[in-house]
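Worked example 3 (structure in, sequence out).
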């Protein structure tokens, strides 16, 4: 059993049934609200000592919900699995060429092509697509790399709430920001992601990150009481 206090855990009074395909974060929110708890608090309790802000421990969730780990892992998505996966043999793949290496690659291709080597043989030798070989033969200078637009992430919608929190209370700790995102904005976000974003934002703004080292530490066992109290 994970956690030195696992033997003292007991099922929650209200244990809603998990829905097939439901994310573990969604289920924890429903479980917390059914028992009048803050989702961030329940998350920390389920992660357990010493890493209260880490991943949910399936064994702890099983005890609090009165269900087996197997059932929870089969029903919920995103619940960590501790079974060792067999290592799969690596499949051969094409060589990935960095943009900075392409001038030398193109020069080598053109040099070998002068000896009469076919396009197919050149592609096999350098592990690149035949299109790349034709580009090298047509022009010694590689074509400019096309810029890829930045893809939106689920964290993007949280930028504005974080800014509002820091504007209204500049001394708000990173832990408090993470808790508000979990509790008030139904965010599914790791503490480390929030920490890195806030530290970077503060450093860019006014260099205050260096004076807030106490807020970057992982909260200790005193943050979440044990055994369970309702």
């Amino acid at each position: 059993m994970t956690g030195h206090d696992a033997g003292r855990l007991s099922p929650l009074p209200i244990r809603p049934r998990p829905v097939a395909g439901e994310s573990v974060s969604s289920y924890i929110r429903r479980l917390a609200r059914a028992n009048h708890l803050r989702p961030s608090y329940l998350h920390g309790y389920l992660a357990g000592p010493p890493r209260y802000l880490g991943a949910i421990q399936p064994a702890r969730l099983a005890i609090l919900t009165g269900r087996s780990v197997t059932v929870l892992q089969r029903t919920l998505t995103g619940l960590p699995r501790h079974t060792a996966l067999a290592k799969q043999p690596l499949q051969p793949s094409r060589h990935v060429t960095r943009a900075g290496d392409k001038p030398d690659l193109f020069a080598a291709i053109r040099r070998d092509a002068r000896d009469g080597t076919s396009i197919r043989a050149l592609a096999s030798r350098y592990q690149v697509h035949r299109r790349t070989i034709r580009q090298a033969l047509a022009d010694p200078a590689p074509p400019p790399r096309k810029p890829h637009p930045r893809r939106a992430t689920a964290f993007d919608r949280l930028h504005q709430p974080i800014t509002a929190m820091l504007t209204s209370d500049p001394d708000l700790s990173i832990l408090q920001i993470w808790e508000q995102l979990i509790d008030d904005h139904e965010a599914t976000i790791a503490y480390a992601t929030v920490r890195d974003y806030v530290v970077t934002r503060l450093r860019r703004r006014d260099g205050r990150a260096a004076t807030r080292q106490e807020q970057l530490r992982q909260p200790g066992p005193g943050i979440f009481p044990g055994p369970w109290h309702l």
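Notes: The chain has three domains: 6-75, 99-138, 154-206. The mean pLDDT is 80.
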